[in-house]
Amino acid sequence: MKVIHESGTRKTAKARATLKAGNGIIRINSQLLQNLQPEMLRMKIQEPLIIAGETAKKVDISVKTHGGGKTSQAEAARLAIARALVFYDKKLQTEFLNYDRHLLVADVRRKETHRPNTHGKARSRRQRSRR
User: Fold this and answer.
1) Any idea what DSSP says for residue 128?
2) pLDDT tens, N- to C-terminus, the chain (131 residues)
3) Distance between CA 79 and CA 120 in Å, rounded?
4) C-alpha distances in angstroms, 43 versus 23, 36, 51, 54, 113?
5) Other C-beta atoms within 10 Å of 43: how many?
């Protein structure tokens, strides 16, 4: 089996997943997934692995993330892992889409840009001077 490379993004975070035949070892930034803190983010990353079941136990996955915050990195890693698993086993695609569409499709929402004279708020009204 060849090595599979897939990527995922969320806001400004990016993740690259490398999948190869193995024993089900998952590493995030060279750290075992079991050691990842906080637990909520670990569970978010584990979702595609739980749905994949036995398929996930046949492969080793290494994920490198950068940019964004911890939550965005976790969601980007989740997307990259799910895409790699679908490339490895096409039958998983319908299961992932039925569970959560964002396992395979990136969330394109971004922070609204800052505009001048709004005092740091993206959608606030502009200040007027009435004298």
Assistant:
1) -
2) 689 999 999 999 999 999 999 998 999 999 999 998 899 999 999 999 999 989 899 999 999 999 999 999 999 999 999 999 999 999 999 999 999 898 899 989 888 887 777 776 666 666 667 77
3) 32
4) 20, 10, 12, 18, 31
5) 12
Give just the sign of the alpha carbon dihedral 37, 31, 89, 56: negative
For 45, 58, 63, the CA distances from 26, given in Å and listed in that order, are 10, 11, 8
Amino acid at 33: L
Q: Which residues contact 13 (CB under 8 A, 6 or more apart)?
A: 65, 66, 67, 68, 69, 72, 73, 75, 76
Q: How far is CA 28 from CA 46, 79, 129, in A?
A: 11, 13, 53
DSSP assignment string, 50-77? HHHTHHHHTEEEEEEEESS-HHHHHHHH
Query: Amino acid identity, residue 20?
Result: K
Q: Are 20 and 75 spatial neighbours (Cβ–Cβ below 8 Å)?
A: no
State the distance between the two ends of the chain, measured CA to CA, in whole angstroms. 75
| Domain 4-103: CATH architecture, name and number where available | 2-Layer Sandwich (3.30)
